Structure formats: C-alpha cells, structure tokens
Amino acid sequence: MVKEDIYILGIESSCDDTSAAVLRNGVILSNVTASQEVHKAYGGVVPELASRAHQQNVVPVVDQALKRAGITKEQLSAIAFTRGPGLMGSLLVGVNFAKGFARSLNIPMIEVNHLQGHVMAHFIKESDDDNHMPPFPFICLLVSGGNSQIVKVNAYNDMEVLGQTIDDAAGEAIDKCSKVMGLGYPGGPIIDRLARQGNPLAYKFAEPNVAGFDYSFSGLKTSFLYNMRKWVQEDPDFIEHHKEDIAASLEHAIVDILMKKLRLAVKETGIKHVAVAGGVSANNGLRNAFHDHAERYGWTIYIPKFSYTTDNAAMIASVGNFKYQDKDFTKMDIPVFSKVTFE
Hints:
Nucleotidyltransferase, domain 5; 2 domains; 9 helices; 10 strands; 19% strand; EC 2.3.1.234; acyltransferase; cytoplasm
C-alpha cells in the first residue's frame, strides 16, 4: 500500500511579516513572505497598520505558496497557524483566515506557539535525505526582537525554559541603541553591517550581574544612552565619526552577555548539542561566537539558514508536521494569545 503524502500549509502572522509555506512529508516545497515597509517611517511596528497589511497580504501570500509548491488547496492535509505570542490584531488575521480556509476544505487545524516554531526551524527539511537536525535533548538559545531565552529541548512538544530576559530582549536592545544613534529601523541588520568594519573593543558598556541563567539588557541600554550623550556633548559629530566602532562594541557586549549564560547552561546540563534560533541568530557576531565556542568547548552547533531566522511560515509548518503525526489538532473556537510563554 502506497503511503499518502502529507501536505501541511503553515501560516505565520505574529508581527509584521505575512508568511505561508507548504511542506510535503516534512520537506519544504515553498516559503513565501510579504514584509511591511510602512513601519520604517515610524521607527517600529505600528500594530494597527500591521493588522491592516496582513489583511491585504494573507490571500495572495497563501496563493503564491500553493502555486510554488505545485499543489492545489484540495491536496492539503491540515493547516498550521501561529496562535501566539505576538500582536493581537496581527494574530487574529492569520488565525481567522486559517479557520475559514480549514472549514471550507474540511481539514484539521493545528495551533503552533511562535517560539516553539523558531526552535523547530532546525527541523525544516530541504530534501528527503536532509538530516542536519539536532538530536534530543539539545540546548537552544532563542534570541529575537521580543525574546531572549535559553531553552532545553527534550522533544518537539517538551521545551523547558532554563533562563530568559527579565526586561528587554537582545534584539530590542539593539533596535533601541540603533535608534539612539539615528541609524534607522530595524536596527539589527544596520548594526551588524557596521560592526563588521569596527573595533569590538573600542568602547565598553555596562554588563548586568543577574543570577542563574536569566538575562537583562536594560542596564546595557542605559549605559549606552548615557555614554552617547556624554560623547556627543564633547563632539557633536562623534557618532558619525565612530559609528563602526560603536556598533562593533555594542554587538560585542550583547554577544558576550548571551554566550556567558549559554556556557553556564551547557556546563550545568552537560548537553553539548547547542542551537541558536530567532531573528538575532542572523547576526554575524553571534554566529561567529557559536563557531568559536564549538572549537573551544567541543560543542556541536546548529545554526539556521538566514531565511529561517526571521518570522517565517516554514517553521510553523514544521511544528505542524510533527503535531499532525500525533493527531494533535485544535478546535475551531481556539483564541489567540499575546503573552510570551511556552505552553
């Protein structure tokens, strides 16, 4: 008897990217994302504008994902969607579309935790013989604009948060410091580009002293702001003349904070399979630090492709594929949630 192919449509709409992806038996066929340029003028994501843009984008994005996958909607086995955490208005657009689409096709729906999706981006297969995935259990550093966590991943549906930020996330701190420098939004890619040309030891900023595996970035952000004010008072063109060194020093401080706690978690757990996920995992300084630690401490590291670091539907479909096999479906009246948590 020939095994029937399982096609999972993933939908991601937690923030300002509308994304749809199709997986066949866990192998990616398409991953389409529409980004929203409108927020750059405001220096950050405007929730109301984000939800409106999702309403405009969700149908054409899903249509493109199906076309690029070379399948019809009738071939879909299930629809996986981001339930949360995220912006309520943005989530509602994706969830309500998933509900309507699933009902019209009479196929099951699968809810996915956005953070779980980032971790499981490591299980997106690009071919049938793709076996780059980390073995369970592994440690994952999840770093993005809204989250900074160290997670012990025992299984796709069993994740234990060992430590997390008690205030700002790493990506949030980078964006805010970029704004102080007048570099624009989003700050992450700009700081990354400038840091490649600067001296990471040129300036020193305050680093937190937080017990355990938890993170804090508010003190670093405050230290950065006060130093900028002082240096600009002394030289109004200071930022323009030294932006590469400032960016490199900021990146160095943040990566140092992240890696110190990660080293501690690896030492305490004894697990040397270590992954990184989330938007900040696209940062070259952090990626270089992972390679350095692999060499120095004998870690086996897992770094996602750049296309799977930011919010994307392939990671949602990846979780959906696991849940489909366990017949872990959700009811039609499921609500969204905005709180940052693993359930």
